[in-house]
Amino acid sequence: DQQVKQNSPSLSVQEGRISILNCDYTNSMFDYFLWYKKYPAEGPTFLISISSIKDKNEDGRFTVFLNKSAKHLSLHIVPSQPGDSAVYFCAARTFAGNTGKLIFGQGTTLQVKP
Amino acid sequence: DAGITQSPRHKVTETGTPVTLRCHQTENHRYMYWYRQDPGHGLRLIHYSYGVKDTDKGEVSDGYSVSRSKTEDFLLTLESATSSQTSVYFCAIRQGSNTEAFFGQGTRLTVV
């Protein structure tokens, strides 16, 4: 049972435009969400996070939106740059028992065309 | 760099042989994780640890065991490797419950 789902395997956008990556989750115990970027042959690197008590967090060109009622979060990249081309993973944490379990989605491959 | 090292980086092994992957950190972080990455499945949690000798199963723990006898090392063992365990394995570390996780460079394991 996939608790964190990224239903779009790939996304292609033009340089300078907005990229929107989506993520859905099913577990209402998730209380902290993160986005990671991964280049080929490298480990994932942290991008941005959001706590469940917020609905928006912004860091430069990256903004994460959280809609708890819909169990949905999205990552907006504005403006998109060719260097943003990578696989993006969303992740969610369950706080139950403070064991810090971190669950990832399947990933979305973003291609930004020059 | 987050001070996390995975070894080996690449390994080819035969079906039925035991394999141990090592994750070493110099950050004194509490949480450590083992994930595998496969096409179409993203990053799936195998096992994780929330302290020395404190470990728990993840989503795909069958066929894997782990040990954490000291803070800095988290070992992943495949008791009897199978071809379905061919994958890229990532270790991650995390200091606290509201912090991000840092990943190692990965270990590419091929079981033939």
Explained architecture:
The complex is a heterodimer of chains A (114) and B (112). With 114 residues, chain A is mainly β. Helices cover 0% and strands 57% of the residues of chain A. Chain A is built from no helices and eleven strands. Chain B has 112 residues and is an all-beta fold. The termini of chain B are far apart. At the A-B interface, strand 4, strand 5, strand 9 and strand 10 of A face strand 4, strand 5, strand 9 and strand 10 of B.
Total count of helical runs of at least 4 residues of chain B: 0
Give average pLDDT of chain A, whole number.
93
Order of secondary-structure elements of chain A: EEEEEEEEEEE
| Number of strand segments of chain A | 11
Span from first to last CA of chain B? 33 Å
Gross morphology of chain B: globular
> What is the alpha-carbon Rg of chain B in Å?
13 Å
- Helix fraction of chain B, binned, reads under 10%
Question: Which structural class do you get from the secondary structure elements of chain A?
Answer: mainly beta
Could you tell me the mean pLDDT of chain B?
A: 93
Radius of gyration of chain A, taken over Cα atoms and rounded to an integer in Å: 14 Å
Beta percentage of chain A is: over 45%
| Unreliable parts of chain A | none
Poorly predicted segments of chain B? none
Query: Which series of helices and strands of chain B comes N to C?
Result: EEEEEEEEEEE
**What is the number of strand segments of chain B?**
11
The count of helical stretches of chain A stands at 0
Helix vs. strand class of chain B: mainly beta
Q: What percent of residues of chain B are in strands?
A: over 45%
Q: How many angstroms separate the termini of chain A?
A: 38 Å
Which chain pair has the greatest contact?
A-B, 27 and 27 residues
